[in-house]
Every structure is written in structure tokens, then in C-alpha cells.
Amino acid sequence: MKKNKKYDYLKWLFSTMNILISMYYLKYNKYIFLLLYSLSICVMLITVKGKYLISLGKNAKKEIKSLVWPKPKEIIKTTIVVLLVTIIISFIIWTMDTLISGFLIIMLHKN
């Protein structure tokens, strides 16, 4: 296990150095940049964390396929409910604001 971890550190170091070098060469040749950058990503993906990342991506893809999306009728109903609640809450807040403002104007003009 330690040997594998040691190799992973070397792979990450190699990949990081490749990315830094490729950024330097981007000024001169974009193909060298793409080659070094692609090589770095490939090396990163064969590490333990890279394999975990690939596994995470596959599981996310499976999860998205198993989602149940709402039907258009449900979307319309939900949208209408949200709009109505928004209008009602807005009216309540406007009414409270008007009453409080009126009360403050009356109180301030008395003094």
C-alpha cells in the first residue's frame, strides 16, 4: 500500500510539472500544450484518487438516469402555486408596510 501511495505522489508531481511546463509552452505551440496537458490528465486518472473520480462520475451518470422528471402538467401546477403564493405574500407585506408607514406618519406629525 505504501509503495502504491509513493507512486501516486510521483504521478501527481509529474502531472503537476507537466501542466506547469505546458502553460509555459502555450505561448509557443498550442499542440505541445494539448499534448502535455492530456498526458497529465491521463496520468492523474490512473492514481487512486483519479480512479475514485472516474467511479464517482459513473455513479453520477447512473443516478441521473434513475431520476424521475416531473410531467409538464405537474410543472404547470407547481408554477401556478408558486406564483399565487408569491402574489399573496407580496400583498401581505405591502399591506403591512402601508399600515406601518401610515402609523409612523401619524405618530411623527402629532409631536
From TrEMBL:
The chain crosses the membrane at residues 9-26, 32-54, 75-108. InterPro entries: SecE_bac, SecE_sf, Translocase_SecE/Sec61-g. Component of the Sec protein translocase complex. Heterotrimer consisting of SecY, SecE and SecG subunits. The heterotrimers can form oligomers, although 1 heterotrimer is thought to be able to translocate proteins. Interacts with the ribosome. Interacts with SecDF, and other proteins may be involved. Interacts with SecA. GO terms for molecular function: protein transmembrane transporter activity. Its main location: membrane. GO terms for cellular component: plasma membrane. Keywords: Cell membrane, Membrane, Protein transport, Translocation, Transmembrane, Transmembrane helix, Transport. The keyword Acetylation does not apply. It comes from the Bacteria. Gene3D superfamilies: Preprotein translocase secy subunit. It comes from Candidatus Portiera aleyrodidarum (primary endosymbiont of Bemisia tabaci). Belongs to the SecE/SEC61-gamma family. Pfam families: SecE. Essential subunit of the Sec protein translocation channel SecYEG. Clamps together the 2 halves of SecY. May contact the channel plug during translocation. It is found in: Membrane. This is Protein translocase subunit SecE.
